[in-house]
Automatic annotation (TrEMBL), chain A:
GO terms for molecular function: N-acetyltransferase activity. This is N-acetyltransferase domain-containing protein. Transmembrane segments: none annotated. Belongs to the acetyltransferase family.
TrEMBL record, chain B:
Residues 17-216 form the N-acetyltransferase domain. Keywords: Acyltransferase, Transferase. GO terms for molecular function: N-acetyltransferase activity. It comes from Darwinula stevensoni. The keyword Secreted does not apply. The keyword Transferase applies. Belongs to the acetyltransferase family. This is N-acetyltransferase domain-containing protein. It holds the Pfam family Acetyltransf_1. It comes from the Eukaryota.
Length: 146, 216
């Protein structure tokens, strides 16, 4: 099911305190060919962090360095640069973030290789961290018990 | 319906332990609990942040980096805390993530943890209500059909756009160390799912030096 465009517009662009930030890779004459959606988070050990929720590149643009440049642009704090007709804004360390976190499905070997090759650590494998989740009905039940 | 009184009052009293939103002057007490939690989790990393960092990032501006609720025993000071922040999912929208949830050893097993989690759940549901009313005015054309239907009991897929816009946080995510059986039991008993076990999600991170060294 498609997530409504209006919700993205409201949550990302209509307040001074957006729910997420989004960078896109644009090929002039073609349009958007990739995007990166992230938000700022917090660790009670090393403070300000960011979480990479989505990183997606259209199939025909993969293995051409676009994803790599997008990830790099996220890590740097220089102004936007234009390379080979693809322009990418840059941010993250300027805010004082000490880490970029994200989740990967363990069977997605292409993605895992991409990240591990660049120094990412699998905290589930190395430190036994598991991702848990409460869904809304659970939250409602928890709230009603008070 | 969501009981409003708890969050309106900003506190809950039970067995003498008050559960309330953290204030700036709680940061020293929260840091103490953070250190206890780190010891409990056997994590070798140095804790880099200080009371000043917490004050700056949680209470120093209009856009805090986190929210925090504490449990306070008048005789003992802060005995528990839950620290969380708002996140986003491109299929379900607004979410929340629970970064830390801890009750000091002497106060475990007497319901403090359960009550803290209940308070946080109410905050998320109250967020739904606030947005509901805001959206009603912003998107006037929906003609009052949002009502309170939008707050309770959403389906997953095929939810009408109006309801997606009206809902607040739909999920609360968090991490647990797999060997921490007490914590795992506590959450599973309340309906939480282990996405690592069930859906093969792995948690990754880039530390600062690897971010700086990212190749083009």
């Amino acid at each position: 099911t498609l997530f409504p465009r209006t919700a993205l517009e409201r949550d990302g662009f209509e307040s001074a305190d957006p729910w997420f930030h989004c960078f896109v890779a644009e090929d002039p004459g073609v349009g958007l060919v990739g995007y990166m959606l992230f938000y700022y988070t917090y660790s009670t050990w090393d403070g300000r962090q960011a979480y990479l929720e989505d990183l997606y590149i259209k199939p025909s643009y993969r293995k051409s360095g676009v994803a790599s440049r997008m990830l790099k642009s996220l890590a740097q704090h220089k102004r936007s640069i234009i390379l080979s007709g693809v322009s990418i804004p840059q941010e993250l360390l300027a805010r004082g973030c000490s880490r970029l976190n994200f989740s990967v499905l363990n069977w997605n070997e292409t993605a895992i290789d991409f990240y591990v090759k660049r120094g990412a650590v699998d905290l589930t494998r190395d430190e036994a961290w598991h991702v848990f989740r409460f869904r809304k009905p659970n939250l409602e039940e928890l709230a009603s018990k008070e | 319906m969501v009981p409003m009184t708890l969050v309106e009052r900003g506190a809950s009293m039970s067995d003498g332990i008050a559960i309330r939103e953290a204030r700036r002057d709680d940061c020293a007490g929260i840091m103490k609990l953070i250190h206890e939690l780190a010891e409990f989790e056997k994590i070798p990393e140095e804790i880099v942040i200080t009371k000043d960092t917490l004050e700056r990032d949680g209470f120093g501006s209009e856009h805090p980096w986190f929210r925090c609720w504490v449990a306070e025993d008048p005789a003992a000071g802060l005995v528990g805390f839950v620290l969380f922040y708002y996140t986003y999912d491109t299929s379900d929208g607004r979410q929340a993530y629970m970064e830390d949830f801890f009750v000091t050893a002497s106060h475990r097993g007497c319901g403090v943890g359960g009550r803290m989690l209940g308070c946080v759940a109410q905050v998320f549901l109250l967020l739904s209500l606030r947005d509901l009313f805001q959206d009603f005015w912003d998107f006037g054309g929906f003609g009052g059909c949002l009502g309170f239907r939008g707050v309770v009991g959403f389906g997953g897929r095929g939810v009408p756009e109006a309801e997606v816009l009206a809902r607040g946080c739909t999920r609360l995510s968090f991490h647990v160390l797999n060997w921490n059986r007490d914590a795992v039991d506590f959450y599973v008993k309340r309906g939480a799912m282990d996405l690592t076990r069930d859906e093969d999600f792995h948690v990754f991170c880039f530390a600062k030096h690897t971010l700086e060294a990212l190749p083009k």
